[in-house]
């Protein structure tokens, strides 16, 4: 009874805290957690231990535990594992351990840490749960979170270049599409995967113009899912994430138009507009992705023999406005951002030196340095040095001051190109 009541209280308080941020949920749960941890060793009961693991998970995921939550959720995973050791034929333990591993993997991925092991473990746990006889399982949420685990694993593999994410994305989308249409937790992942796969198809070397109609239909479907998530968003941040997805949809359409030889003026401007609306999810990200959309327009205009100077200045202003704000994970988007933003460098290098472009060029160099810091291997370090060289050409740069206030730029000092750039 104590275990059941404590766990149910934990879940109610944790979920309520998303709408009542001032509640000290961890303070309320701590006495119950301590009581269960004292009582459980006396009984060595698998069900009591299971409830303890669930309460540990609720406690770890409640607001206010940023400094210790990884250790706490790992403790819950360990407790679930002990439940399984004691009672291996108890299906809920596999499902709940999968949930804990999924949460751990998401948190580690958001922190730029290794997320592969917990996410693969979560998928394996959901597989074990769903392999039980149908009368023993409720398949909806295990299938949903298995698909979400595959999605987050694919994103981690892409960012860290640890393997091909496309098979994981394709399988995750197949699983998500098999889940009921009104499942709100599936809308954003579905739309994100559709847009990711579509962007890959548009940029692929074997792109076929005959596929235009199918690509547009996929993008339209993603936009519909993103708009539903805007309407159902519980917070301004959630709404901002959805607007960013709509921005990515317009950006995908812009890339499609560009690939077909057309100048995507409307698509790029609408992409930038939607990205700006996503500011509640991260002001820096909103401005940088808006700059990316404007950069694509600059590239298309230049290729068509049109003047791209207005787009160049607008994009550089966005980067300059964003660079001193928290990047909110943007430093792990280098593989997507760098190719679009490189066009700004191409245009900078093609215009005469002018002081009003110096702040934007310097901000662009700092952004490429940050993107390099968030990526394994070479990353866009060459772009960082090119942009910093342009900043130097367009105006004086106080290198000592820049190094003292920007750790990503300071990290470039170990590169032999730094001495040639700065004279140090």
Strand content: under 5%
Percentage of residues in helical conformation: over 70%
The chain-level structural class is: mainly alpha
Query: Helical stretch count?
Result: 20
Number of strands: 0
Q: Cα-atom Rg, whole angstroms?
A: 24 Å
**What oligomeric assembly is this protein in?**
single chain
N-to-C CA distance: 70 Å
Structure report:
- The protein has 424 residues and is an all-alpha fold.
- The protein has helices at 2-16, 25-43, 46-61, 69-86, 91-110, 116-130, 140-160, 166-177, 184-203, 212-231, 236-259, 265-277, 283-303, 309-322, 334-350, 358-373, 381-394, 399-405, 407-410, 417-422.
- The radius of gyration is 24 Å and the shape is globular.
Task: Output the keywords.
single chain, 0% strand, 424 residues, mainly alpha, globular, disordered N terminus, 74% helix
A few lines on this structure:
The protein has 424 residues and is mostly helical. The protein contains 20 helices and no strands. It has helices at 2-16, 25-43, 46-61, 69-86, 91-110, 116-130, 140-160, 166-177, 184-203, 212-231, 236-259, 265-277, 283-303, 309-322, 334-350, 358-373, 381-394, 399-405, 407-410, 417-422.
Secondary structure layout:
Blueprint: H1 2-16, H2 25-43, H3 46-61, H4 69-86, H5 91-110, H6 116-130, H7 140-160, H8 166-177, H9 184-203, H10 212-231, H11 236-259, H12 265-277, H13 283-303, H14 309-322, H15 334-350, H16 358-373, H17 381-394, H18 399-405, H19 407-410, H20 417-422
